[in-house]
Design a protein that fits this description.
three-stranded antiparallel β-sheet; 10 helices; 58% helix; globular
């Protein structure tokens, strides 16, 4: 039996077109009322931003806070009692001395924390800690919008730092047990670490050797394995309900790209630098023109690594959380069901992206290492 897909397409198109009619989102009157309440709250609370009261504003605020780093883990909040469920993290800052205290003193950003006679508050826009007075007021520049308060050196244990420690410990225990099993069983893997053995072999045979070469790949294998599983585990942590967004943090991707940049240029041979500053086979006047461009490429390569990983993970979190939020905006079983189905499919896709971004970062790093140690044999007289 053959079923035409034209009626099915028409039904799906009709359902999508009717979604706005089936969902009872906030009316203009409600929005105006909410704006009035927010303005009144902003005046009464002074420096503190008014808490969003309508569904759309709450979802927007939640998505914004989800992609930012935080000084505590908050799993849920009771809107009736205003109670938060989670646990605080230690705050470690340097401001005319060392200050160590619990992030619970901030009361989730609603109050200033006192330490050794100084007061500190969390800015709601960027999640950073600034020095304030007892009121916790953060003064923003009218032109730039940036806080004018003094920002101390922050060495706090945030959610991102916790995820980094967790990934490091997980890698240490998994692969140390894998290495021990090789020694005990004559090269045969046992235990939990054997799950990752095919990935280790794949990185060696399909990434390191083809891009770096048999002669030089061994000295880069430890870094390639570390960077692959480190990025992979952080990406996976970001898909949990804990609200961790480590690889969607520009600081983290910048640090990883800097490591690749340093290893590439510190281990490069003379042929690598020769092809940058005085490339063979090119007329000498053109070499002078191309040398600055080639040197610029040295810095563009790690920059592309940084932006690629950051943008893909950050955008994935924003899109996924926004679609999940649509389930609370659509007050109909059709709209919420479609949002749930789409978010489920995107969650599966994000798992693929987690592996893919770890693979791409490792592959490009190996490619850069290979270009740094490649041996060229040019005959200048032939050109």
């Amino acid at each position: 039996m053959v079923i035409s897909n034209k009626p099915l397409r028409f039904i799906l198109a009709a359902l999508v077109a009717c979604l706005p009619l089936m969902s009872f989102s906030n009316t203009e009157k409600d929005s105006a009322h909410v704006q009035t309440e927010e303005a009144h709250g902003a005046v009464s609370e002074g420096h503190h931003a008014a808490e969003p009261t309508d569904v759309k504003s709450k979802i927007k605020a939640f998505v914004g806070h989800h992609v930012l780093d935080s000084h505590d883990f908050t799993f849920t909040q009771d809107d009736v009692t205003g109670k938060y469920y989670g646990f605080p993290l230690p705050v470690i800052i340097w401001d005319n001395g060392l200050h160590i205290f619990s992030s619970s003193k901030f009361n989730h950003g609603h109050t200033a924390a006192e330490s050794k006679g100084s007061y500190y508050a969390i800015n709601h826009h960027d999640g950073k800690i600034y020095r304030t007075d007892a009121s916790g007021e953060i003064i923003e520049n009218e032109k730039t919008g940036h806080p004018e308060n003094v920002r101390p050196l922050d060495f706090s244990i945030t959610k991102t730092v916790v995820s980094i420690f967790a990934a490091a410990l997980l890698m240490f225990f998994l692969f140390s047990s894998l290495a021990k099993s090789y020694a005990k069983n004559g090269g045969i893997a046992t235990g939990a670490g054997r799950i990752f053995e095919p990935l280790v072999v794949y990185i060696r045979d399909e990434i390191a050797i083809p891009n770096i070469g048999v002669k030089h790949y061994r000295k880069y294998m430890s870094y390639l394995l570390t960077i692959f599983f480190f990025v992979l585990f952080l990406n996976i942590f970001g898909l949990t309900p804990l609200g961790i967004n480590a690889t969607g943090n520009l600081t983290i991707t910048f640090s990883l790209a800097i490591l690749t940049f340093l290893i590439t240029n510190l281990t490069a041979n003379k042929n690598y630098w020769g092809h940058i500053f005085w490339m063979p086979g090119v007329p000498k006047p053109m070499r002078i023109i191309l040398a600055p461009i080639e040197l610029l490429g040295v810095f563009i390569k790690p920059f592309s690594l940084m932006i690629r990983l950051y943008a893909n993970i950050f955008a994935g979190h924003i899109v996924l959380m926004s679609i999940i939020g649509l389930m609370f905006i659509f007050k109909s079983w059709i709209g919420s069901s479609l949002s749930f189905g789409l978010s489920f499919v995107l969650s599966i896709l994000e798992i693929l992206v987690a592996f893919l971004q770890a693979y791409i970062f490792t592959m490009l790093s190996a490619l850069y290492f290979g270009s740094a140690v490649e041996e060229h044999h040019h005959e200048e007289g032939h050109h």
